[in-house]
Amino acid sequence: DVKVTQSSRYLVKRTGEKVFLECVQDMDHENMFWYRQDPGLGLRLIYFSYDVKMKEKGDIPEGYSVSREKKERFSLILESASTNQTSMYLCASSLPDSDTEAFFGQGTRLTVV
Amino acid sequence: GENVEQHPSTLSVQEGDSAVIKCTYSDSASNYFPWYKQELGKRPQLIIDIRSNVGEKKDQRIAVTLNKTAKHFSLHITETQPEDSAVYFCAASMGGSASKIIFGSGTRLSIRP
Questions:
Q1: Of the N and C termini of chain B, which has fewer Cβ atoms inside 10 Å?
Q2: Which residues on A lie below 8 Å from B46 (Cβ)?
Q3: A13 DSSP assignment
């Protein structure tokens, strides 16, 4: 059974703080993704990684960076958190082929105050 | 890059009736089109998918159709039941291992008893 685990379910941070969101998957998947989910906007891709140390920008990378030092772990970093980054963040992983299922983590609800 | 548009944003149907959700995509190179269901407070999960070499796929009460020429695909749910109430997301992905999965904005489906 595939498991994608995000380190926190809820997080409250102050404006200007550096924030780390962690995601770990246990199925040896090559591809990992970070999305943010906002009402009416769906799931918007922030960054994805198709291999260790490899990353590509998604549609909304501004204000974010990522790190993938190990295959099973993909971290999303908010360099200087702002209130407009308050959102639900979802991590996902999948096998390397384009036509395979993506498995999602449970989500992290981040509030920046 | 790929852009996926999804309609309607909300849909309310009588229990037992059918529901249809439509999506269009912009990049003709996309060749995989999954649909995800997200129940309240839960993570998105794959319910059905279709590849570009297939025009229609059915799994019990749900079916997906694809029109490559028009670049649109649709989800059909027949004999709707209360447990079908959820947010549904369509997505599109291209070939290759370093392939993004781009999602639509979501449809909130409500089933009226």
A1: C
A2: 101-102
A3: E
